[in-house]
Amino acid sequence: MFANIAVILPRVNDFMIIDTSEDFHADDIYSPAVSSTYMAESESDSVSKAESDAISLDKLESHLWGAADILRGSIDSADYKNYIFGLLFLKRANDRFEEETEEVAEELGISIELVRSDRDLHEEFWIPDRARWDHLRAQDVDVGAALNKALAVVEDENDTIADRVLTSVDFNDKERLPDGLLSELVSHFSKYRYRNVDLDDPDIFGRAYEYLIRKFADDAGKKGGEFYTPREVVRLIVKCVDPQPGHRVYDPCCGSGGMLIYSAEHIRESGGDMDDISLYGQEKNLNTWAIGQMNVLLHELYDAKIEKGNTITDPQRVTRHGELEKFDRVIANPMWNQEYDKEWAEESDPYNRFPYGLAPKNRADWTWIQLMLASLNETGRAGVVMDNGVLFRSRSEKKIRKPILEDDLIEAVIALPANLFYNTSSPGCILLLNQDKPAEREGKVLFIHAEDQHLRESEIEVYEELSNQNRLTEEGVEYLAETFLTGREEPHHSRLVSMDEIAENDWNLNVPRYVDTTEPEEPIDVSETLQELDRLAEERQKTDEELQQYMEELEYR
């Protein structure tokens, strides 16, 4: 036994001095506890003191977007999000694994190394040796292959991220992703730890992930609309359908999962917990599905269930008895004017989801609306973003719109401003559907005009103009949602219209038919105008006299 001595352990670049003011066994130098502490300190050496301070949202967003700059030029802007999201998720999972390891070791009073090697002691993520960050940082050849193997083994070992969430992209493409580029990307993600303790607020990681999704949508231009709905539009829809604790919420074309996530956040904003709601979704695009899966996981919504596949031809939310599952709230922003397999829907749909008729094969809008109605329970509500054409197109679409109105399933129409979305500059609309309207709204539809930048009566700023797009303001979102929820009527903005009046307008739902949107004429001050005319007459007379004088001087007759 030794006491009051200093033990010096060799390290790669310096020495580690252990002050042993307590009684100390020489064997402890090589014990798992000392070894794991030594390893943890070695790993933390790569993070400077300044960088180990709590990371703010702005700092984290800037750092994460810097990863895109590394890939820009090597990978198409529409694709590099898939590589960055996978690597970002792997680094976050690694850091949470290490954080959980230290927390469990302290709680149980056992060595860090023992916890690190025992899968049963981990509740969040299990990271096998070949996927651990220090192993990946040590790679300088075949980096892409190492990353592929790491992502695959993390998938295999964690049920919540199984089924190709992480392996939907291939890092082992040396033409586009040479070792040097990937090593630079790994080094960039190594600059900061992504443990909860290192963040101003653990929630900011999920928000930073959403920031990346939005930035990638900006970069991708029109393609961005395929996986991202502007957050402000999402908030408006969710506030209008107003999910409650205990509800089941479904998005049949969920993209990156934003509507589902904000539904949970809406519960928290109302005083509940985010896990007081059940979330379900389906997405056809594999890469977008993977982004959505990672998004809900990074928001710690581990029970959210997002399925792969075409919801029109292969809906996944089906009971074991072969019936459609029913939901309290259904929300979506499907691709507008999308082609679909009309022949299949007509001949093979086993769920009777399209009882009002089939939309044209190159415009699936009313197919999506009927699909959503079919997924609602008896008191369910839905909100869907649509192209304005669904409001007034005739022929086959009118034949669908008319009976849906007659069955009193449309509660409100909100006409949105132009240039809100990534894939089109056209104005869209929100249809709010309800299987169980309140008595005061039965046989009526609330029309809300939100295309003006400022409302004339209340002077609310509905949207702000950005360099490339318009964006709903916070006060605009709140006011529009309040208008719907309270049924407020306001000149030039909102009006509750009877079904008889809609029938008189041939079942046309175009908002300007029911809300006066004409620009007011400038008032004319007659007295002031007459005075201006007199002044102009005097000026003309004076000009004529001057012209006559010049002509006389020139002896012009």
Can you put this structure into words, describing what you see?
The chain contains 17 helices and 13 strands. By secondary structure, it is of the alpha/beta class. Helix 3 runs parallel beside helix 11. The N terminus is likely disordered.
Features:
Ferritin; 557 residues; nine-stranded mixed sheet; globular; Rossmann fold; disordered N terminus; two-stranded antiparallel ribbon; alpha/beta; single chain; 3 domains
Question: How would the blueprint of this fold be written?
Answer:
Elements: E1 5-10, E2 15-20, H1 32-44, H2 57-71, H3 80-108, H4 112-116, H5 133-137, H6 143-157, H7 179-189, H8 203-220, H9 231-241, E3 248-251, H10 258-269, E4 278-283, H11 286-298, E5 305-308, E6 327-332, H12 342-347, H13 365-374, E7 376-387, H14 396-406, E8 410-415, E9 428-434, E10 444-449, E11 463-465, E12 470-472, H15 474-486, E13 494-498, H16 499-504, H17 526-553
Parallel strand pairs: 3-4, 3-6, 4-5, 6-7, 8-10
Antiparallel strand pairs: 1-2, 7-9, 8-9, 10-13, 11-12
Beta content comes to 5-15%
CATH architecture level-2 label of the largest domain: 3-Layer(aba) Sandwich
CATH topology of the largest domain: Rossmann fold
Instruction: Quickly give the structural class.
Output: alpha/beta
CATH class term of the largest domain: Alpha Beta
Secondary-structure element order, N to C: EEHHHHHHHHHEHEHEEHHEHEEEEEHEHH
Number of helices: 17
Described by its quaternary structure, the protein is: single chain
What would you call the shape?
globular
Radius of gyration using CA atoms only: 31 Å
Relative helix content: 25-40%
Distance between the termini: 132 Å
Overall pLDDT metric = 87
Q: Describe the biggest sheet?
A: 9 strands, mixed
Any idea how many domains?
Answer: 3
CATH superfamily of the largest domain: Vaccinia Virus protein VP39
Strands of the biggest beta sheet: in what spatial order?
Answer: 5-4-3-6-7-9-8-10-13
Number of strands: 13
